[in-house]
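re: ur question from earlier - yeah i can do the single chain one, its not a big deal. heres the input i used so u can compare w yours
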Amino acid sequence: MPRASVREQIVDAAFEQFHRHGYNACGVKLITDSAGVPKGSFYNHFESKEALALVVMDRYGATRHLDKLAEASVPPLTRLRDHFEALAQDIIDLGYERGCVFGNFSTEAADHIPAIRDGVRTAFDLWATAIAAVISEAQEDGSVTSATDAETLARFLLNAWEGAIVGERAAKDGSSFAAFFTVAFEAVLR
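and the output i got, formated as C-alpha cells:
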C-alpha cells in the first residue's frame, strides 16, 4: 500500500486532533508532531491553520451520514431518523468525548475568524438543505406535519441536534439524545 502524502498525513492528523481537542487547543506543532512530519512541511501545503481547518471541515462533512438521507428506497421519515441515529452512534462510540467539528469550531473560532465562520455556515447550510429535502418528501407523503415549512424544521432539528451533542458531552448517558428523538420525532415533526 502506498504511503500517504505529507499533505494527507497532516490532514489526517489535524482531523483527529481538531476533533479530539478543538480548534484553539491545536497548534501547528501538535498537528505536525501527530502527523510525524517536520513543522516546516506544514507551510508547504497550507497557508495557515485556518486553511487546514477548512479542509478538515470538508472531510468531516463527508462523514456526517448524508448518504442515509438520500436512500430513496427508505421512507423519508425513517431516513431522517436513521441519519440522526447514525450520528448519535458515532458520538457514543467515541465515549461522548467528541462533539461535532462544525459545532465545536462555531463556538471556538467563528466569532473571530471569518474563514471559519464562513466554513461553518456553509457546512450547516448544506446539511440543513439535505435535511429539508427529506422533510419535504415526508410532508408530501403525510408522515410529517406541513404546518411549518421544511427549511424551518430542518434548521430547528439541526440546532436541536447540536444542543443534544453538548448535553451528551456533559451527561455521557444518552439522555440528551433520547430527549432529542422524543421531541423531534414524536412532537415537532408529527
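The chain has two domains: 6-58, 64-188. not sure if urs matches, ping me
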